[in-house]
Amino acid sequence: MMVDSGRKVPHIQTPLPGPLSRALIETDEQFVSPSYTRSYPLVIRRASGTTLEDLDGNLFLDFTAGIAVCATGHCHPQVVAAIQRQAEQLLHMCGADFYYPPLKDLARKLCEIAPGTSPKRVLFTNSGAEAIEAAIKLARYHTRRQHILAFYGAFHGRTMGALSLTASKITQRRRFEPLLPEVTHVGYANPYRNPYATEGGEGCVRFIEDRLFKTVLPPEEVAAIVVEPIQGEGGYVVPPADYHQQLKALAERHGILFVVDEVQSGMGRTGKMFAIEHWGVEPDIVCVAKGIASGMPLGAMIAKAGIMDWEKGAHASTFGGNPVSCVAALETISLLEGGLMENARQVGGYLKTRLQELQQRHPLIGDVRGKGLMIGADLVKDQVAKTPAVAQRDAILQRCFEKGLVLLGCGESVIRFCPALVVTEAEVDTAVEILEAAMQEVAPATGVA
Ligand code: PLP
Question: Which end of the chain, N or C, is surrounded by fewer C-beta atoms within 10 Å?
Fold first, then answer.
């Protein structure tokens, strides 16, 4: 169902929030957990492609895709049709206890497209955090080691195991300790804010080898290095060209499993099926979720077959690999392979160029980075000290929302762009125009506020 019915998007026709949205929010806020991080008073009635319609008939251009989830755009007709067909046949039967075709088909497909040539196997989950939990458990089971190495800035989810690896915002961990023991965090190589080249410094792989492994952490006790190929919540940070090769080599030298969290970066978003392919590295375990089923809940842990050596009953989930989610994923992958991944590469390149042009005109933008449609603009108060422009970033996001462009932040002061992979260059032009107008209002280019 098209929601824009011929109207130009965005189209804001009421004050925000409109009266119907305002009434819903009042009730919602009485009954729903206050821990949710809603940034905008946006109540969505329906959506299609990159367009959201709120309860009051306002149309928004969505550059979040439900946080990098609706890969094929909202309610892609082929995905919806696949869901409808499957819903008439089988809703649930528990893939951990019984067999059914969509689960087998999707497992085989994921094994085919996973990075590298080693045979693989899949364990299905409902979410990204659960895929990470599964990876932690498998890494411990297979290696019989306990320790995990993770990175500052990482976000791996909010369940207790995944949270133990997460080091993104203190509010996510405060008052939840004790978490999983034997987790060590190290700096993530951020070429803009934490120069990788600093000899032996945080973020440098040599720091792990020369300092950590020689002083506090016996490498033979480390089960896994868990890393995002491109840090998501941490600020859309793209590490240097040899970073993952170096991490993988380090892991191999010590018999440590190299686990990549592709929950946000995977499923075509960066112009390749998995972001780690940009570094040409074959991981031992890959975790995916978010974009895999275009909005249906599903996650997966894909591991080298030789590593997935656990016994019957060691791990499973009631809903993981639900048949309706599996057919949505199969349809999503077919659309990605049929052109959307290429669109992410092309339109993502266009978006990056447009933002780099904007950067030339606007000193508030310190860095534009990313791959495909996983692009971040890091806002700074001054270009030399690179002081994060947090208040300005937040104010710009609010102005964009008022003008009908939905964006989210990440990192300390980064604007993240993760639209659906169906986004067009014309939509990018609209988004960049709105962003520039919002930036001019908040911090005119002649002098950063
Ligand atoms: N890993 C990464 C890289 C993520 O971005 C997220 C969610 O934002 C997760 C894991 C957790 O996924 P979920 O919210 O589905 O549990």
Answer: N
Residue 38 belongs to domain spanning? 1-63
Q: How far is the CA of 438 from the centre of ligand 1 (A)?
A: 29
Q: What is the rounded distance in angstroms from the CA atom of residue 443 to the CA atom of residue 210?
A: 44
**Length reported for the chain:** 449
- More confident site: 28 or 444: 28
In the chain, the amino acid numbered 148 is I
What is residue 5's predicted lDDT score, i.e. its pLDDT?
A: 67
The stretch 77-93 carries a mean pLDDT of 98
- Quick: pLDDT tens for 242-299: 999 999 999 999 999 999 999 999 999 999 999 999 999 999 999 999 999 999 999 9
Atom 12 of ligand 1: nearest residue by CA position: 128
Query: Is 392 a member of any domain?
Result: no
Work out which ligand 1 atom sits closest to the CA atom of 157: 11
Question: Which token pair is 269?
Answer: 């978003």
User: Which ligand 1 atom is nearest residue 290's CA?
Assistant: 15
Q: What phi, psi does 361 have (nearest 5°)?
A: -90, -15
Q: Do 325 and 279 fall within a single domain? A: yes
Ligand 1 neighbours, Cβ below 6 Å, are 127-129, 132, 155-157, 228, 232-233, 261, 263-264, 289
Cα–ligand 1 centroid distance for 437 (angstroms)? 32
Q: Which residue out of 188, 259, 264, 276 has the highest number of ligand 1 atoms within 8 Å of its CB and is therefore the one to mutate?
A: 264
Q: Which residues contact 330 (CB under 8 A, 6 or more apart)?
A: 82, 102, 105, 106, 109
Task: Yes or no: say if 270 and 373 are a contact pair by the CB < 8 Å rule.
Answer: yes
